[in-house]
Structures are given as C-alpha cells and as structure tokens.
Input
Amino acid sequence: MNKIYFDYNSSTPLDKRVLKEMRVYLSDNFANPSAIYSFAQKAKNAIEDARISVAKLVSAKRREIVFTSGGTEANNLAIKGFCFANHSRGNHVITSKIEHSSVLSVFKLLEKKGFKVTYLNVDRDGVVDVSQLKESICKETILVSVMHANNEIGTIQPVERIKAICERQGVCFHTDAVQSFGKIEVNSSFADLITVSSHKIYGPKGAGALYVKSGTNIEPLFNGGHQEEELRPGTEAVASIVGFGKAAALRLSEMDEEGIKVKKMRDALEEGILKAIKGVKVNGHPQNRLYNTLNICIDAVEAQNLVINLDMKGIYASSGSACQAKIPEVSYVLLATGLSERDCSGALRLSLGKCTKESDIRFFIKTLPEIVKNLRKAASHG
Output
C-alpha cells in the first residue's frame, strides 16, 4: 500500500544526516556538559556549535539563542517570562485570534493573573488587522504577540510592519515562527522575541529555541542551575540540541531550492483538486502563504471521515493543528476568518515537504474525488 505523508506542518521526518550527528551524544559521549573535564567539554562545545547554527538561521548573535524543549516551552518563556518581568510597566497585552494553542492558552492564563488581553481580528485570508493593533496599543501595553505564519492555513503575517509599530510605541514584540523557520526567511529584525522549533525542520522532537534580543528583560519559568544564561536551567538534552543545530545548518543551505520544488507540487495539488471536485474552497492568503501549505474546505463532507478514508488509502493528512486533533470542534482559525461552522466541518490541511514526490500528488488527485463522492453519497442517504 502507498505511504504518502501530507502532514509536514505537524512534524517532519528526521534527516539521516541529523541522526548521524546525534548518535555520538546518544551513546559515546554521554557526559553532562556542565562538568569541567574534557569529555564533558566536548559535549558543551557541541551545544555551542548548534547555538551558532540556529543563530545564523535567524541572523542573530550566538548568546541571543536560548535552547528549550520545543516551541511550546519557548512560547511560554517568551510571553510569561516577559510579562512577569515587566508587570510594573503595564498590564495590557495583545495577540491575535488565530495563534497556536500554546500561545492562546498562555494569554488566557494571563487574564486570570490580572492582565488585560486584546485579541486582534483577522480578515478572510487570515491576515491580522493592523489598524486594530494601532488602535489597541495604549500606555499600559507591554507586549504584542503575533505568529509569523499560521500552522493551519499558512498565511504569513506582516511582522516587519507590526514590529515597526511596536518599536515606535516602546512595546515588545514576540512572534511564534515555528512554522516559518527553515521554510522562509526568519530574521532577528522581525521581533524582539522569536520562537523556533526543531521537529518542523527535519530535526528531532524535544528541542526548540527562543531568540531573545539583547537587553530584553525576561524571567525564567524554572529555577535551578546556570544553564542557558539562567533562563532555562537544567541539564541540556545534548543529542537533541546537536540534532537541532545540524538541521538548522542544512536548512540554511537547502531551504530555498526546496521551496521552489515544493511550491510547484503544492500548486499542482491545488489546481488538480479544484478541477476534479466541485464545492471546494481554498483557505489562507492566495499569495502570502507558506509554499508547502494547502488548506481546503470541501462541501458536504466531514473532515474526520475524510481523514479516516484517506488513511485507509495510505495517505496521511489532517483536518488542522495536531495539537487540537483530540478536541472535537471545528477550527477556531477558520472560524476567525469568517467561515461558518458548516464550512469548517469539511476542512482538510495538506502540508508538503522535501520527501513529497510528484507521484504522490498524482495519486492524491486521483484518489480524493472517489472518496468525496462516496462520503457525499453516504451523507445524503443518512
């Protein structure tokens, strides 16, 4: 049976070159990098080499990169860490309605802690309302957090414009760049705090990082040792960090070429689906969208049934964010763009990557219409 993976926004396969780098620190060099003897210092040096590689991919200084266990922890460190450290300056913060759950849940917590939160609207393409942002900033505002690219619909936000607005008002700007990092340019000039992750760029799970612009005051989430400039204490996961560094180095040299190849296949997939099936709507911005992401709504089809039937054909896709997959509700991202619950119920996210083949696209375009036809027929007789 075919094995076709269309869920790269959820996670990517581990690059064999990354695994090779990691193996040394999974077996031979098991030392604690905080020890002072040479065996341990080799592990410490490997971490610093990885830090340089991640820093290069965001055009940052080495010491501005703080390693974490992943994107969720980095988002928590950025938002909680900044707000708790700067609470005396103000208690108003701003985010958007389509952020990842690891961001929105933090803002919900901040509301319980006495912070006032403004949730920005987005238009039908999923672009943040910049005018609302300007109007919302007040003297109590200390932080704005808007993601770089949405994980469900791929829409890329005008982060440079948002950063300029925040800078003029003396407000810190954080962006969750987990989905854009390693696909398109993510530059330290985009924000004061930037979240990135390893397992979206063919690196291992369990590793992420937060770019912290020099001079930005944040508090650690945990207390303990002196690791990671005392912002993330605890013994480092050396193998995962080394793998992250190797993955970042590979992205630096390979992502542009891959982008051209993957976009061509994504566009062919989109065109093929629209030609083969009636009642399909493409979600997200038509141009300013991640080159690997296609989110569609299919009329008269339930997304869960669609994913299950695709799975039976050896095609692995999703109806939205993997972090929301166990919650039986329609996508809050799509609802925020103005779609009805009925429209959202037929949403399918297809995200491609470097292992995607043209034959995968052809098979999918051939297979999907029959599945949709059968599901619609079953629904009409229900």
The domain at 16-251 is CATH 3.40.640.10 (Aspartate Aminotransferase; domain 2). The chain has a mean pLDDT of 95. The chain is about 40% helix and 15% strand.
